[in-house]
Structure formats: C-alpha cells, structure tokens
Amino acid sequence: MGGLNNMITSAKLRRRLVCLFSGMLLPAGICLFAQLPDGTKTTQQWIDEIVSNIDEEEKPEYNVASVYNSAHLSIMAYIIRDIDGSLNCDEADITAGINLLNEYFSKINTDFTLRSVQVVDDYHYSTIQNETDTRELLKKHKAERTINLYLLESIETDSVPCYGYTYYPSDTVNNTVFLDKDYIHGNYLITLMGHFFGLLSTHDTLGGFEYVNGVNCRTSGDFICDTWADPNLFDMVDDDCIYSGTFQDGNGEFYVPTVANLMSESKDACKCIFTSQQYRRMLFCLKKYRYYLF
Predict the structure, then answer these.
(1) Is 64-199+278-293 in CATH node 3.90.650.10?
(2) Cα–Cα distance measured from residue 26 to residue 246, given in angstroms and rounded to the nearest whole number
(3) In 110-187, alpha helices (H)
(4) Is residue 5 over pLDDT 70?
(5) Which residues of 257-282 are buried (b: 16+ CB within 10 A; e: fewer)?
(6) What are the structural domain ranges in the chain?
(7) Over 80: is that where the pLDDT of 21 sits?
(8) How far apart are CA 67 and CA 48, in angstroms?
(9) In Å, what is the CA distance from 153 to each residue of 4, 75, 139, 180, 239?
(10) 78 has which bridge partners?
(11) Cα 146 from chain centre
C-alpha cells in the first residue's frame, strides 16, 4: 500500500511542480508538462500481420475514403480518482480530445462520439505499472463494442513512465486505451488511436531498420514508404521544431526526419500530419480488424 501511495504522490508532485514553474512564465490557467514517451509495445505478431497484409492493403479501394468506407465509433471514458479523491480531468477535457481526434480521422470518414463518462472512485486503479494492474480494473469497468478509454494519474510500461499505451488491431480482446490525464490535451490520444488502427511508430525497428534512401521502406521500419526514416525523435526536437540529432543509418547517411508526423516522438506541438499511406493502413485495419466496433 505504501509503495502505491508513494507513486501516486510522486505523480501528483511532478504535475504540481511543472505547473508551478510554468505558471511563472505563462498566463494563468496554462500548464506545461514534461515530454513522456509513447508506451505502446510493438509485437512480432503485428509485424507478421503487416507483412501478410501488405499486398491487400495496397488495393485502390483503401486509397481514399468514400461513403462506402465510413465508420461511426463510440468511446466509453473512465476517469479514475486520485488518492485525494480528485478527478483532475472532466468531460469537457475528454470531449475536446475527441473533437481533435475527429478532425484527423475525418480523412477516412471515421468519427468518434463519447458514449458516456464513468468515474471510478477507487484510487488503487489510478496508477498502472504492468498488465496485472489492469486486470481487476478491466474486469469491473469495461464495455463491449466500444473503445474503452481510461484516464489515470500515471502509467509505466517496462518500468518506464509513459503518457499512455494501447494495443494493435490483431488483439481484438483489448479494445482499450490508457492515457495519463495530463495528456488528454494535444495529439497524444491521436497517436494512440493511430496504433489502435495499425500504425507503427515511425522509428520502429522490430521489423528491421529503415534506410534513409527508402530502399527497404516496404519491408522494415514502419512498413510505410511515404514516411521518412526516423532514428527516434524523443528529446531530439527543440521548441522551434528543429531536429537536433546527428544519427546515421546503416549506410552512413544522416537521418533527415520530419518532425510533424503524428506517429513520431517529436514534440507534441510540432506534430500535425498523417501521410496518405498511414491513412490507407488505418482504413484497411478498420475494415479488416476493427469492424466489430461499428
């Protein structure tokens, strides 16, 4: 019990300290948060699915959205109280996050509506460190045929703090997204939904390292050819959205990644685009794997 209390207190202290510091620099009501990484874990199973699907995915029917490729999905949101009984998040925050989500997914005629918001009064569920922590939460608070969004005080994967995580489309049991409450604003939910609909991070290497010249773009990296090779931009992009890294690929060529892709670890304020082929993959995965949600 003491360890859990300490973790929650630490998460709250981090929030308060950053808010206090940012309050010295910014107008009242605006709070900045330290960058945390995406905690979604790529699996070999999903890599194998991408490889087996690649030819089918490239069929013209998935290139553009149409009235025949439309989907209306719902989100069930759960806000878990912290140890003090505070929510630190409300329905307006969630609605704003979903509105931004809809702006990006309108490209493939997909929209999300907030089904309802439930408050979970037990603070023991407010911090997640591993799969065991989620088991009881999901047993008590999970709806079928919807995307379940859990808003928590802090999240870790493999002992590393992260802003959230989700599961790839081949895992049809876990229609779940876990998000740190601090990160409901911005593009974090959009990135997690990108994973939920099949996108790898642009710097992913489980399927192999992508070369800067793109010669192996279809068989490595994120297995998408209109995204640039990416060495992982976490803490490598400044406030002016300038990439400061000097990494080289296996051929000795310097990476020249975009800082704007939503599936990168660039600064959130810099991220604003999915590419055409990323949209194609999400549309394909929506139709092939996530069809039971609409």
Answers:
(1) no
(2) 32
(3) 131-140
(4) no
(5) bbbebbbbbbbbebbeebbebbbbbb
(6) 64-199+278-293
(7) no
(8) 30
(9) 12, 19, 19, 6, 26
(10) 118, 150
(11) 17
User: With the C-alpha atoms ordered 102, 56, 41, 135, is the resulting torsion angle positive or negative?
Assistant: positive
The reported pTM is: 0.89
**Banded model confidence at residue 246, pLDDT cuts 50, 70, 90:** very high
Q: What are phi and psi of 38, to 5 degrees?
A: -70, 130
Residue 248 structure tokens: 């080289």
Give residue 111's pLDDT: 96
Is residue 86 within 8 Å of 16, Cβ to Cβ? no
Dist CA 105 CA 4 (whole Å): 37
> Which pLDDT tens digit goes with each residue over 191-218?
999 999 999 999 999 999 999 999 999 9
Question: How far apart, in whole angstroms, are the C-alpha atoms of residue 123 and residue 127?
Answer: 8
Match 């590393």 to its residue by tokens. 160
Distant-in-sequence, close-in-space partners of 85: CB < 8 Å, separation ≥ 6: 121, 123
What's the pLDDT at 131? Answer: 77
256, two tokens: 């020249």
The backbone region for 202, taken as left when phi is positive above 0, alpha when psi lies in -120 to 50, beta otherwise, is alpha
Is the Cβ–Cβ distance between 39 and 180 less than 8 Å? no
What is the rounded CA–CA span in Å between residue 26 and residue 19? 10
Name the amino acid, one letter, at 5: N
Q: What angle separates helix 276-288 from helix 44-57, to the nearest 10 degrees?
A: 100
Amino acid at 204: D
DSSP conformation class of 62: G
Please report where in the chains the tokens 């309108």 appear, as a residue.
106
115: nearest Cα among 146, 92, 93, 144 = 146
Pairing verdict, β 147-152 and 71-80: parallel
Q: Cβ(40)–Cβ(199) under 8 Å?
A: no
Cα torsion angle, 215, 261, 174, 130, sign: positive
